[in-house]
Amino acid sequence: MAQIFRKSANNIAKISLITVVLLAGLGFYAWTQFARSSYLTGQYLEIQQPVQFSHKHHVGDDGIDCRYCHQTVETTASAGMPSTQTCMNCHSQLWADAPYLEPIRASFRDNKPIQWTRVHDLPEYVYFNHSIHIAKGVGCSTCHGPVDKMPTVYEENTLQMEWCIQCHREPEKFIRPKSEVFNMEYRPDDTDQATRDQLKVDYKIRSREMLTSCSTCHR
Amino acid sequence: MAQLEEYADTPEFKEFVSREYPHEIEEWDNSLSRRNFVKVMGASLALAGLTGCVIQPSEKIVPYVNSQMGLLPGKSNYFATAMSLGGVAVGLLAKSYDGARSRLRVIPIIRVAAERRMCSRRRQCLECSTLTGRKRW
């Protein structure tokens, strides 16, 4: 009976088998890196807002505390976006005629709210509560990065579940004393590990099993 | 097995069909077979799911223009108040959620030890039921 395949088919079959497996592996790895890329997560992307509010100026230079504008961060799930009135508290006196601030004055005058574009956008199926994180000693800059150095706000971290779970598994690596929560100058090395372990007990942070339980966030 | 023979469309099958179904032989048109139909519908259903693979569209945050005092986003505010129903003051518990979705509850009279009176209509009047949304007590 005539041979259907040439002799070289032996080698071709072996080589192609190995190549396909390698390519599949590489392709999978490339896919995982793409899934963590800035394109999909929006990390480090500076979002343009209707008013060019500079946190670097207001927080870094002027020293305004986070809570002056984001008033409900300690009490509710949402940190709260400042109302136009909050801006006008100062800007009715300071730079009151600056053309740069016209959108704010227009909003206050016409009673139309300013439409900010959300930078830290979690999907709808996730429940995130700011107040509990503040209460347990997670600092603002831990998740939001160095906001006092951002002329335009960008997302410092990917906000992917992988990143959240990283802390939920070992909170003692990321927490800080509650007095330092709103301190932008705080560095993780300022507290040693032993103190942080003690903080975990003092602040009654739950066990790893409870923190990484599904219904904690997926309600 | 008859499905395979039908797909192969052999002369033996054609002869079998002509003998088995003599009247339908002229109308036998297999252009849209069940197999093809299910194949196409299954593919459409699967590919329709691909519309979910989008980069998350950007959302807007729209705050108030004037700060609302005492308003906590996402938390309910309860107010103890009263209003007159049928000429008698009735205690009410008002719940306001984000300034909307308000509900009024009548504070049960039994808990108000000092006032043991009820509205003379015994809560059957229209005012009471429209206020609280309850049809009967």
Keywords, please?
heterodimer; A: 219 residues; mainly alpha; 2 domains; 11 helices; 1% strand; extended; B: 137 residues; alpha+beta; three-stranded antiparallel β-sheet; 4 strands; 21% strand; elongated
Fold and architecture overview:
- The complex is a heterodimer of chains A (219) and B (137).
- Chain A folds into two domains: 55-81 and 116-216, no CATH class; 82-115, no CATH class.
- Helices cover 42% and strands 1% of the residues of chain A.
- Chain A has eleven helices and one strand.
- The longest helix of chain A is centred in the N-terminal third of the chain and has 27 residues, at 9-35.
- The model of chain A has no long low-confidence stretch (mean pLDDT 93).
- Chain B has two domains: 2-52, no CATH class; 76-132, no CATH class.
- The two termini of chain B are 68 Å apart.
- Residues 108-120 of chain B have low confidence and may be disordered.
- At the A-B interface, helix 5 and strand 1 of A face strand 1 of B.
Mean pLDDT of chain A: 93
How many domains, in number, for the residues of chain A? 2
Q: In sequence order, what are the helices and strands of chain A, one letter per element?
A: HHHHHHEHHHHH
Beta-strand percentage of chain B? 15-25%
Summary?
Chain A is mostly helical. Chain A has helices at 9-35, 38-41, 55-61, 66-69, 84-91, 102-110, 130-135, 140-144, 161-169, 193-202, 208-211; one strand at 116-117.
SSE blueprint and pairings:
The complex is a heterodimer of chains A (219) and B (137).
Chain A (H helix, E strand, L loop, with lengths): L8 H27 L2 H4 L13 H7 L4 H4 L14 H8 L10 H9 L5 E2 L12 H6 L4 H5 L16 H9 L23 H10 L5 H4 L8
Chain B lengths: L1 H7 L2 H10 L13 H15 L11 E2 L14 E10 L2 E10 L2 E7 L19 H7 L5
